[in-house]
Amino acid sequence: MLRDNPIGWNWEVYIEMFAVGIAAGAFLIAMLLELFGRGRSPIARTAHLITPPLALLGTALLIYKLERSERFLHMIVQSENIPWPMFKWWSPISFGAWILMAFSLVATISFIDALVDRSWFRAGPWYRGHTIHGSILGKVVAVIGILLALALAAYSGALLSVTAVPGWDDTIFISALFLGVSAATGAAMLLLLHAIFGHAPLDEVDSLTQFGSMAVIWQLFLLIVVAISLGGAMSFILSSTRTIIAAAVAVVLLLIALPILYLKVLPSDTLRLGLASSLILVSGFLIRYTMVMGPQHAIE
Amino acid sequence: MAEPMGFFTDVSVCIGCKACEVACKQWNQLSANEGGAPQLSGNSYDNTRTLDGNTWRHVRFVEDFSDDENRTQARWLMMSDVCKHCVQAGCLEACPTGAIIRTEFDTVVIQADVCNGCRACIPACPFDVIEINPVNNTAMKCTLCYDRLQAGMVPACAQACPTDSIQFGPVRELRERADVRLQELQDRGVEDASIYGREEMLGGLNAFFLIEGPPEWYGLPEDPKLPSSNNLAGEGIFAAISGVVLAVMGAISFRKLGPSRRAAEAERMNADSTNDTSRPQA
Predict the structure, then answer these.
(1) Is pLDDT at B59 greater than 70 in this prediction?
(2) Residues of chain A contacting residue B231, judged by C-beta atoms under 8 Å apart
């Protein structure tokens, strides 16, 4: 059935998904580093510092996007039964609001922990050398953080797929794809910051490069899976010149970034990491744009 | 709960007068589109075009002509479309604020004072019924005149309908009436008549239709699905798989940075008396 009414999820939505996806991917990497023994590493600390601002940006965009922004709390508390929580796990937007809140809480703790680790802040027994990350408690936070980061990266896919909109409802792999995009763009953002500020030891950068490369390969694989699962419904995703170009450029950029990143075809590390990570970030943005706007352009 | 109430809309007696559209707008105080300026769609006499947040009844016009050169067979079908008040309602499932409720009449109503305009209900509706009302900026649709029902009155559209194309009553009774009417039509040779919205469709549509011709003619999906039952489990399973794959990739990439590896390296480097600790040796 062709739809007439516009969905109205526009730039605010795909920018929110992009920003929150980077936050989730970067935080996932920090938590994985924590689990494998580098809770206080420079890359993890950078991830802790960039995650809350990105999550805040995403939250602000979501609230701004509401037609009645002053009622955003109705997502969290029952407006007729304050302060009882309003939570529907089967509604992706309700699930996402709660996950974003829980994720932001944990990310903020890690953010403060990173400040403490740099002696920019202290509070009682929380001071440099006595941080959460790098301790046993950090492992507990890491397990919770990994689950929240994965849920946050995935929910936006379900938000699209669990609808009755042709193109979105024709595949069950959008969440899986968005997880891949989040991991790849999160790694790319951390590599880009390293390329600019050069703060991390090389063994960590090598490991992160390896993870980023694998995430890009996973993302490419999932793009193929999504395309196959959509079949003829792919026309709803590639419904306009803009989304066709965006999708094509996104794939080409990933294919260019991968050899630059992993095969080290450029002599300078700064140039190599900076260029490859920028291409992955732009590609991730274009994939979000295509998936969000394609079926909506079909309605227009 | 009171007995489920609903609409039975019979296409075979609709004359396209649009009294239902006007009565609905009047009772619910919905403004005219574009300030009342005439907007011709070019699609038969259907200038309303669609159901949305400001139009809760919409008379569709279907011009059915035979393919031969002289169009020897022709009929003009009209159907007054409306929210289906599904027993399994996608909008109600998706709404994250609790603004969409099921009433004691088994109808589905959006509470405008609770809705925050997140738009989640718009793509969740398989019938494309809901949109944002431009006056109060909340999602809106037919309430099946909830206020009139509470006062024991008939919904405005059904009351205004001059041909009884729109019938209001207990859904059980309406279904019996619809079956009798369908049999009548089929006995008269109207072979493509059918009931749209029986119990097997989303648990039953409380606003259902007797149509002539395929549902697509009326902008109705042939097999509407509840979005959550369609995709939620699949998305969850494959997202979990993707998450596990990424976690394994993380384990493969970052395990060499672990404490035991670092301790061994430090020991070796002490032995070698070298200061270069930046890159692990092969």
Answers:
(1) yes
(2) 158, 161-162, 169, 172
- Least Cα distance to A260 among A285, A248, A282, A277 occurs for A277
Contact A33 B254 (CB under 8 A): yes
pLDDT band with cut points at 50, 70 and 90 for residue A1: low
Please name the amino acid found at residue B61. F
Residue of B nearest to A165 (CA): B123
Q: Hey, is the C-beta of A186 within 8 angstroms of any chain B C-beta?
A: no
Contact A280, A212 (CB under 8 A): yes
Averaged over A91-117, what is the pLDDT?
Answer: 95
Nearest CA in chain B to A200: B278
Max CA separation in chain A (angstroms): 63
Split at pLDDT 50, 70, 90, the class of B275 is very low
Distance CA(A65)–CA(A11), nearest Å, equals 9
Nearest to residue A184, comparing CAs of A209, A153, A151, A216? A216
- Which chain A residues are Cβ-neighbours of B249 within 8 angstroms? 183, 211, 214-215, 218
- Give CA–CA dist A291/B92, Å, rounded: 25
Closest CA to B83 of B7, B31, B150: B7
Cβ separation A211–B250 shorter than 8 A: yes
Tell me if B117 and A67 make a contact (CB, 8 A cut-off). yes
Q: What is the pLDDT at residue B156?
A: 98
Nearest one of B40, B26, B67 to B155, comparing CA atoms:
B26
Residue B231's identity, in one-letter code, is N
- Residue A209 has phi, psi (to 5 degrees) of -60, -40
How does DSSP classify residue B32? P
| pTM of structure | 0.91
Alpha helices, DSSP H, located in A231-268: 234-237, 241-262
Asked whether residue B1 carries a pLDDT value surpassing 90, the answer given is no
The answer to whether the beta carbons of residues A290 and A243 sit under 8 Å apart is yes
- What are the CB-based long-range contacts (under 8 Å, 24+) for A253-259? A253/A279, A253/A280, A253/A282, A253/A283, A253/A286, A254/A216, A254/A219, A254/A220, A254/A279, A254/A280, A254/A283, A255/A220, A257/A216, A257/A283, A258/A213, A258/A216, A258/A217, A258/A220
Contact A208 B253 (CB under 8 A): yes
For A299, the token pair is: 């309605």
- Contact check, Cβ <8 Å, B246/A161: no
Q: How far is A65 from chain B (nearest CA, A)?
A: 7
Rounded mean pLDDT, B145-158: 97
Residues facing residue B77 across a β-bridge? B62
A211–B253 C-beta distance less than 8 A: yes
pLDDT at B265: 54
Q: What is the DSSP letter of A232?
A: G
Q: How far apart are the first and last CA of chain B?
A: 73
Q: Look at residue B134 in the predicted model and tell me its pLDDT.
A: 92
ipTM: 0.93
